[in-house]
Amino acid sequence: MFRGKEISFLLFSLLLFISSIIISHGIKNIGTKNGNYITVKGLSEREILSTSSSWELRYRLTGDTINDINKENNLSLSKIKSFFLKHGFSEDHIKMGFMEFHEENYKESLYKYRAHISLTVNTKNIEKMEAAEKNIAELYNQGILISNSGGPRYYFDNINDIKPEMLADSIKNAKLAALEFTKHSSSKLGKIKNANQGYFEFLPIDRSLGDQERYPKKILRIVTTVSYYLD
C-alpha cells in the first residue's frame, strides 16, 4: 500500500501535470487571438455650408457727460440697425450686449467719458451675413467706430444628420486599407478586434486660412481607427 507521503506526492504531481496542460493551452489561445492583428485608419470628409451665423460688433463712443454718451449711442445704434435692415435682417436678429463706461483721468483727453458697447447679430441666412460683412465699410463711413470685430462666425448645426453616414464611410475606408494590407502580407482579414471613431473636426476649405469659424464653407472630417484580426 502507498504511504501517506507517497500519495501526497502522486496527487501533487498529477495536479502539476494537469495545470501545465491548462496553462499551455491558454497561452496558445492567447497568442492566436491577440498576437496577430492589424490597426488601420479610415478617413471621411465632407464639404459643407454653414447653417447659421453670429456677428458680435463692438463700437466706441466718447463724450463729456453720460447723457452725451447715451445720445451718441442712440444715434449709432439707429445707424447700425438701419444698415442691417437694409441687408434683409429684422430687428429680432439684433441683440444688445454690454455697455462699459470709463472716466478719462488724463489732462490730454479730449472727452471726460469713453464707452464701449457691444451687440450681436444672428441669422440662419448665410448669404445675408456675407453681404453685410462685405459692405461693413458703410458703417465706418457714417462715423461708427467699430473695434475688436473679427467678422461673423459661421456654424454648422446639422452635424447629427450626417454623422452616421460619415462614420460608416470612415469604417468602410478603414476596411479597404486593411484589405490592401492583406494583399501584400499573405494573410486573411478576420473580425474587428476593436474600433475608435475619434472625433468630428471642422476645418477650413484651405487649410492655410486658420480659424474655420470665419468661413461659411468648411470641411467636416472624421478619422476612425479600427483593429482587425488576421487569420
UniProtKB/TrEMBL annotation:
<keyword id="KW-0614">Plasmid</keyword>
<dbReference type="GO" id="GO:0006974">
    <property type="term" value="P:DNA damage response"/>
</dbReference>
<dbReference type="InterPro" id="IPR016907">
    <property type="entry name" value="UCP029033"/>
</dbReference>
<dbReference type="InterPro" id="IPR052022">
    <property type="entry name" value="26kDa_periplasmic_antigen"/>
</dbReference>
<protein>
    <recommendedName>
        <fullName>SIMPL domain-containing protein</fullName>
    </recommendedName>
</protein>
<dbReference type="Pfam" id="PF04402">
    <property type="entry name" value="SIMPL"/>
</dbReference>
<dbReference type="InterPro" id="IPR007497">
    <property type="entry name" value="SIMPL/DUF541"/>
</dbReference>
